[in-house]
């Protein structure tokens, strides 16, 4: 049975106090009791990003990796959900609680965990921490699991340009941060390289520190409707849970949506709209989570930057929709673009 961890205000205060004491060297038993990075590690934990499990996208992909590890490696997984409007101190408390419970590795799902992992990893040097989508903090016990999102997004741009009948396509970013700008940059470049006359409508749902653009489907739905009204007939959203709203809007209008992170055609929560999910830009988040867990269990924990790109199928474009499989000209263009990227003939931008 999987355990969902929800840390109360009291728990946050207690964990923060415990971390403070450990960092000051007053509770050496806490770090000493952390599991070593060895084959004895049997408990693992995910701390979810905004939107939590059930987002049909990023967090669900991480969960799939942990579930696979449970099934194939015999580990016991724990999950910790984020709270609305939480601070870095809340994340520190959550990670501290998970590490003190003997989980190894402890994985922060998303770049927002970077400041917290930087602190907690110091307090628990025998525990491996995974940080997805960020390389800003490093330590011997931190594995930075990162992806070439721009490369997969380029392929989505090729598919969108080849599929569009109006010559207008849309990009919706959840929050305007550097990570999501990579998605925009790759997508726009792919569209323009395929059809220089195409128009790309771009909109971000929120600006930091407001991260609602990753969690509120109504924002994605409204943005997509605005782009549809301007003639867009293919819309790509990199917006986590909010992206499900854009998929709904496109499907309702009989237009194409492009999913992100997970193969959203196969997500049960989006089954009503699946026929209009042309493809999805996939990130092997599930594989990265599984690989990190396995490395710790094998006694050879991953550390440093672990990059997943197009050449190793770390990112890619899903072909689950039968309608997409029949688009031979689109598939040929996508395959050619993939080969050119892998061969170094196309360099994909990481900023618009």
Automatic annotation (TrEMBL):
Instruction: Kindly state which keywords UniProt assigns to this record, in alphabetical order.
Output: Cell membrane, Lipoprotein, Membrane, Signal
Where is the protein found, in the record's own terms? Cell membrane
User: Which domain of life does this protein belong to?
Assistant: Bacteria
What residue stretches are annotated with the ABC transporter substrate-binding protein PnrA-like domain?
48-338
Query: Signal sequence: where?
Result: 1-23
| GO CC, alphabetical | plasma membrane
Membrane topology classification: Lipid-anchor
User: Which CDD domains does the record associate with it?
Assistant: PBP1_PrnA-like (cd06354)
The record's InterPro entries line, in alphabetical order, gives:
BMP_lipoprotein, Peripla_BP_I, PnrA-like
**Family note:** Belongs to the BMP lipoprotein family.
Q: What is this protein called?
A: ABC transporter substrate-binding protein
């Amino acid at each position: 049975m999987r355990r969902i961890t929800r840390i109360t205000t009291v728990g946050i205060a207690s964990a923060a106090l415990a971390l403070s004491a450990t960092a000051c060297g007053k509770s050496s038993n806490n770090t000493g009791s952390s599991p070593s990075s060895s084959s004895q590690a049997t408990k693992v934990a995910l701390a979810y990003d905004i939107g939590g499990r059930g987002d049909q996208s990023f967090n669900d992909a991480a969960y799939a990796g942990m579930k696979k590890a449970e099934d194939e490696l015999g580990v016991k997984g724990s999950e910790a959900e984020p709270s609305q409007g939480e601070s870095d101190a809340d994340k520190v408390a959550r990670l501290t609680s998970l590490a003190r419970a003997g989980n190894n590795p402890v994985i922060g799902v998303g770049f927002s965990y970077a400041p917290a992992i930087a602190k907690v990893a110091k307090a628990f040097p025998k525990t491996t921490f995974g940080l997805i989508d960020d390389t800003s903090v490093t330590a011997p016990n931190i594995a930075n699991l990162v992806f070439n999102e721009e490369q997969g997004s380029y392929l989505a741009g090729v598919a969108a340009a080849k599929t569009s009948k109006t010559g207008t396509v849309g990009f919706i970013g959840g929050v305007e941060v550097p990570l999501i700008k990579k998605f925009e940059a790759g997508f726009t470049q792919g569209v323009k390289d395929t059809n220089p006359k195409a128009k790309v409508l771009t909109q971000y749902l929120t600006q930091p520190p407001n991260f609602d653009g990753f969690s509120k489907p109504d924002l994605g739905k409204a943005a997509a409707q605005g782009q549809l009204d301007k003639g867009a007939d293919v819309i790509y959203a990199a917006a986590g849970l909010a992206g499900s709203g854009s998929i709904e809007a496109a499907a309702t209008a009989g237009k194409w949506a492009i999913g992100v992170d997970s193969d959203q055609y196969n997500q049960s929560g989006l089954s009503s709209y699946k026929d209009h999910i042309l493809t999805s830009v996939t990130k092997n988040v599930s594989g990265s989570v599984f690989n990190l867990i396995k490395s710790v269990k094998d006694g050879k924990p991953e550390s440093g930057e672990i990059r997943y790109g197009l050449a190793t199928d770390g990112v890619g474009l899903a072909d689950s929709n039968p309608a997409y499989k029949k688009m031979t000209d689109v598939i040929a263009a996508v395959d050619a673009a993939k080969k050119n990227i892998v061969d170094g003939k196309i360099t994909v931008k990481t900023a618009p």
